[in-house]
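Narrative of activities, Objective 1.

The group set out to show that a structural description can be obtained from nothing but a protein's sequence at a throughput compatible with the screening campaign. Below is one input-output pair from the validation batch, recorded exactly as produced.
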Amino acid sequence: MAKEAVKIHEIVKYPDPVLAKSAEPVTTFDAVLRKLVGEMFESMYAAQGIGLAAPQIGLSKRLTVIDVSLKRTRRTSWC
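Output recorded for this entry:
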């Protein structure tokens, strides 16, 4: 079975309104959120960043991914 391609999200820039509003809390960690976390990590790596918040990809959720490891190797699992 072929592995599904991971979506790379576009980074939202100021003055996009999503960056100024209060984000919604995350209340359920399900398969949909797990997939989003993986996409966020890959989007962060593609932008050569060390952290990414959901509003930075246009989603008003209280969700952040961070990788401050010295090695720039991608994880193969997210949780």
